[in-house]
Amino acid sequence: MSRPVIAVVGAGPGVSGSVARRFAREGYDVALLGVDEAQLTELAGQVEALGVDVGHAVTDVTDVEAATAAIQRFGDHTGRIDVLHFNPSAFREKDPLELPVAELLEDVALGVGALLTAVQAARPYLSAGGRVTVTGSMAADKPWHRAASLGVQKAGVRNLVRSLDATLAPDGIRAVSVTVRGTLDKQGPFTPDRVADAIWAAAHQDEADWQAEVPYSG
């Protein structure tokens, strides 16, 4: 039997990179989707050094056709996707009076809409026991007014995860967002590696007591 596979959407050097390495250490092969080729190449090397197979694709995840094609290529190659992790969001320092509607919608297309694209593309490769995980944020509940679109994205993606979980649950597939209630740092409880541990734990909840949102408070 082939190893389990995690596809990481919005892969880079932060939480998403820690998630990729965390699952690789548990024996998952890894597919990486992101926009920065240098970062993807470096992360792919780190993951491969852990003894698993890794593939990566440079893709704008807001490009529905390109993102769908990239995920389908991964799925066709591996024959399965066991975990789909979604990480991207846009940080734009503008308050609600400065933020044009077009920019708000652009940010929501990345931080929320791209999750729809990823899940719809991955669905044929997900089977019972499959999981969709999302990096959430306390900005969903306590937005900083100077980055108004971020709070909208995080509230929206959390809401979408609940709908995805209800839709997928009859097939034994579950979705969960991990709400990080703190600021990422290089030390302490909110390092990317510690958050990745929380995402691993959320993905491996007992299904009988499944929660579609799991807070991580360090």
UniProtKB/TrEMBL annotation:
<dbReference type="InterPro" id="IPR002347">
    <property type="entry name" value="SDR_fam"/>
</dbReference>
<dbReference type="InterPro" id="IPR036291">
    <property type="entry name" value="NAD(P)-bd_dom_sf"/>
</dbReference>
<dbReference type="Pfam" id="PF00106">
    <property type="entry name" value="adh_short"/>
</dbReference>
<protein>
    <submittedName>
        <fullName>SDR family oxidoreductase</fullName>
    </submittedName>
</protein>
